[in-house]
Amino acid sequence: MAALPATQREVRLLTKPTGLPRPEHFAVVESPVVPPGEGEVLVRNRFFHVFATLRILIAGATQDTPFPVLDAGDTLVGAAIGEVVQAPEDSGLTPGDLVSHWLGWREYAVVPAAECTRLDPAVLPDPVAHLQQGWTAYAALTRGVRLRPGDTVFVTAGGSGIGSMAGLIARRLGAGRVVASAGSPRKAERLRTELGYDAVVVRGAGPLAEQLAKAAPDGIDVCFDNVGGEQLRAAVEAARPGARFVLVGALSGQLDAGGPGTAAPVELDSLPLIHKRIEMRGFSSDDYDDKDEWTARFGAWLRAGEITFPHVRVKGIENGPRTLLEVIEGRHVGAVVVEL
Question: What integer pLDDT is reported at residue 336 of this predicted model?
Answer without folding.
Answer: 97
